[in-house]
Design goal:
Layout (H helix, E strand, L loop, with lengths): L8 H22 L6 H12 L3 E2 H8 L3 H13 L3 E5 L7 E5 L1 H21 L5 H18 L2
Antiparallel strand pairs: 1-3, 2-3
Helix pairs in contact: 1-5, 2-5, 3-4
């Protein structure tokens, strides 16, 4: 059988991720929140692990330190996060959610969960768990 990139699992992963992301962004805009899925991801991370370094953020999202800096700066300008010096390492700054950031997170997470529910409609919860297991294996394998 001849390889067809348009029928590979990688193609379907890319298209599915793009569609879920775009749908989420539209859902945010319709609800009056002009925030990208990437910035939402940053709010989720800080909600779970507040007070982490820009480098750790870059590592978690597998983006450059410059890209992380730009995302953080954008959120900081909107009052959603703040940067404070790391008392253990004076060269580093830690990023924290502000009260405003916590408040918008609470609103966005409801929309995010609804987005996943709609995108997963008609799919058995066990199949979604299997999908997550498979995706984790693909992520590990891609790092070999």
């Amino acid at each position: 059988m001849r390889y067809d990139p348009f029928t590979s699992y990688a193609f379907f992963l890319v298209v599915a991720a793009k569609r879920v992301r775009e749908r989420l962004h539209q859902k945010f805009l319709q609800a009056g929140f002009d925030i990208s899925p990437e910035k939402y991801g940053m709010l989720i991370l800080l909600h779970r692990q507040d007070g982490i370094s820009q480098q750790n953020i870059a590592d978690k999202f597998e983006i450059s330190k410059v890209a992380a800096f730009k995302l953080i700066s954008s959120l900081e300008k909107r009052g959603f996060v703040s940067r404070k010096p790391d008392h253990k390492d004076g060269r580093s700054k830690l990023v924290y959610l502000t009260e405003k950031g916590k408040s918008i997170y609470e609103k966005l997470v409801v929309l995010g969960q609804d987005n996943l529910n709609v995108c997963g409609e008609g799919i058995d919860p066990g199949d979604l768990e299997t999908l997550k297991t498979i995706l984790r294996k693909i992520i590990v394998n891609s790092q070999k």
